[in-house]
Amino acid sequence: MEKNNRKFVLTIILMVIFLITTCFAAVTIYNKYNKTVKIGVIDSLLDDKYLSKYDVVTNKKIVKDTAINNHGIAILSIIKQNSNAKIYYASTLDSTLKSSIDNIVKAIYWCVENDVDIINMSFATTEDNASMKKAINYAISKDVIIVASCINFKDVKAYPAMYNGVVSVSNTDSSKASIIVKEQEYSIKLLDGKIIKGSGTSCSTAAVTNQIAKELSGEINLDIVKKVKK
184 by DSSP, 3-state: which? Predict the structure, then answer.
């Protein structure tokens, strides 16, 4: 009788261990393939309705120009397409899509403070600025993936795309880009259901960010992140 009791207790213990191990494995797999990726987007000012639609955390204090430009709307729409990523949006580009380097630097640090996984920068400048380089290096040191545009249709040095560790994107053949997305037109669905067309390196950069986010969340495996981390 005592021997049978021992066997019963041992069986219960083994079952408990099996259940705990199975639950742990299930949670690990779930977390691996259902990670909410946090993306910092530095672009033009967005309409409040877009911020509420996409559940965006925003920093409106950086940009001074209050005019709306569709550039940010298009970029955000491409990044969010078929993605559950959480967006941290810093408005630095004015209605003419210009920004001071200081504002861009502030936006980078703000994104890092919010523990983003990726920062999308669908713009470029030919100015190699020490403050911006420092901010980019700081973000990379915190394991943030920076995705930035080269200049449309020009094989010239563009920043922050040219800094070491940055995923530089071009939509044409370029010796300066780490990823080339051949020129194509993107269908961008707006809130009212209207479809607009977008093209250029800015859109290609957003598309690459979308793909990296899906890879980080476990949805796809393109080895983009692995190549970036080399």
Answer: coil
pLDDT averaged over every residue in the chain: 77
Residue whose pair of structure tokens reads 């703000």 in the numeric block? 110
pLDDT of residue 143: 94
Kindly report the pTM of this predicted structure. Answer: 0.77
| DSSP code string of 134-180 | HHHHHHHHTTPEEEEE--TT--S--BTTTSTT-EEEESS--TT-SEE
Q: Is 80 helix (H, G, I), strand (E, B) or coil?
A: helix
Stretch 151-180: mean pLDDT, rounded? 80
Instruction: Give CA–CA dist 133/146, Å, rounded.
Output: 12
Radius of gyration over alpha carbons of the chain, in Å?
22
Q: Pick the residue with more confidence: 148 or 49? A: 148
Are 174 and 140 within 8 A, CB to CB? no
Burial 169-183 (b: 16+ CB within 10 A, else e): bbbbebeebbbebee
CA distances from 176 to 75, 126, 149, 196 (A): 22, 13, 10, 29
- Residue 143's φ and ψ, nearest 5 degrees, are 65, 25
Give me the mean pLDDT over the 202-224 stretch.
81
Distance from C-alpha of 79 to C-alpha of 165, rounded to nearest angstrom: 21
Distance CA(102)–CA(105), nearest Å, equals 5
pLDDT band of 20, cuts 50, 70, 90: low
In this prediction, residue 131 has a pLDDT band, given cuts at 50, 70 and 90, of very high
